[in-house]
Specification:
This protein has about 130 residues and is mainly alpha-helical. Helices cover about 60% and strands about 5% of the residues. The protein contains 3 helices and 2 strands. It has a two-stranded antiparallel sheet with strand order 1-2. β1 and β2 form a beta hairpin. It is elongated, with a radius of gyration of 20 Å.
Length: about 130
């Protein structure tokens, strides 16, 4: 059972990111198709990077009792694909959050002073922004 500890931690972390995504409507809950395409492209890019590094002898799979031992290819553990998904999803959520925050500030700066911000403008507007 300890062999699934790392994979389990990665999946729990992905679940936490999904909760944040749902709460703030950043990626999947804002545009599911574009988010899926972005994640697939990112993960495939980094998997190709890993395969190239493995082929050139730059990377090597380490041994750990916390890994499943399942491999997508020689020297490429399944945990790597899940980790890359976590990495890409986390980066996408941070990007979307910062983008929405900057847009909210621009919108607030462009709005006349006597017009209050609407609640529908997103989580980054209002008195707390």
């Amino acid at each position: 059972m300890i062999g699934f500890a790392y994979l389990g931690a990665l999946l729990v972390s992905l679940g936490g990111l999904a909760v944040l995504d749902r709460r703030f409507h950043l990626a999947f809950w804002a545009d599911p198709a574009r988010t899926a395409i972005t994640l697939v492209v990112g993960v495939l890019f980094f998997l190709a990077w890993d395969v190239a590094g493995l082929a050139l002898g730059i990377f090597a799979r380490g041994d750990s009792p916390h890994m499943t031992g399942l491999q997508l290819a020689p020297e490429l553990p399944v945990e790597e694909a899940v980790f890359l998904t976590l990495l890409c999803y986390n980066t996408l959520l941070v990007w979307r959050f910062l983008d929405l925050r900057v847009r909210g500030r621009r919108r607030a700066a462009d709005a006349p002073a006597d017009v209050p911000a609407r609640a529908s403008d997103g989580p980054t507007t209002g008195a707390g922004a």
